[in-house]
Amino acid sequence: MRVFVILPAAGLGTRMAAGQASAAPKQFLELAGTPILIHTLRAFADVPAIAGIYVAVRPNEVERVKAHVAEHGFAGRVTVVEGGDSRQASVANALAVLPCEADDIVLVHDAVRPLIDAATIQRTIQAVEKHHAAIVGLPAVDTIKQVERTADGALITSTIPREYIVQAQTPQGFRCGLLRRAFAEAAADGFVGTDEASVVERAGAAVAVVPGSAANFKITQPGDLELAEFYLARRAKA
Ligand code: C5P
After folding, report:
1. Contact 164, 59 (CB under 8 A)
2. pLDDT by residue (tens digit) across 58-94?
3. Which of 22, 32, 59, 125 has the most CB atoms around it within 10 Å of its CB?
4. What is the CA(83)–ligand 1 centre distance, in A?
5. In which element (H, E) is residue 176 found?
């Protein structure tokens, strides 16, 4: 059994660019002097069980990312592929060239979650070995409301007990055969989900949850870079 990683990194980062002079996609912004994508790559490259990492980027960024990958010494283990118009399309493009057997494990991780740690990656792999599908999730601490959007703003329709809620993070891991089947079914039905688990859930598979952490957050909006720098500095001191 081998473990492969897909890093979708073809987003435009429009929420991050809002109100900023620079429109650089967030995965290429620097964190402590190194692009976010390289931090994320390093986190997975440091786990010996991982056989190969596939990064999906926008077509016009393929050459730049290949150069970054070589410059940071990852050339042998990292393959750069073209992403698509949605996160799901980017993952599908990487999956199409992944040399995995049905029983191998595929972990999908947001390129913009650079603070993932080796222990959580290992726990996810172990959970996939046992359950065939597992994602990292953070138990909700806030009370969660379901709302209806109206012209006057949001109106609460119900309160969802928070013990039933986890916030989906990544990595999200699956047996390769299961992920391929789920993606094929989604493509046939025109279903587009915001994560891989939703695609696998609708294919009828049970998906386990591995505890995540607040540090494994998705760099999304202005201010998040400072927060990531804080977590990085704290980790360096530990
Ligand atoms: O936009 P969102 O926060 O959902 O992005 C999650 C991850 O999916 C990011 O790493 C982003 O680069 C990636 N993505 C992608 N292809 C797209 C859109 C998003 O690889 N078309």
Report:
1. no
2. 999 999 999 999 999 998 899 999 999 999 999 999 9
3. 125
4. 9
5. helix 176-189
Q: Is 137 in the pocket of ligand 1 (CB under 6 A)?
A: no
Distance from the alpha carbon of residue 89 to the mean position of ligand 1, in angstroms: 10
Q: Which domain holds residue 25?
A: 3-135+167-237
Q: Which of 60, 110, 113 to mutate to test the pocket of ligand 1 (most atoms within 8 A of CB)?
A: 110
Burial of 174 (C-beta count, 10 Å sphere; 0-12/13-18/19+): buried
pTM to 2 decimals? 0.95
Establish if 82 belongs to a structural domain. Answer: yes
Q: Read off the CATH number of the domain in which 96 is found.
A: 3.90.550.10
- Residue that the structure tokens 């979708």 belong to: 8
Residue 156 covered by a domain? no
Torsion of CA 138, 139, 145, 150, to 10 degrees: 10
Q: Among the residues of 18-86, which ranges form H helices?
A: 36-45, 62-71
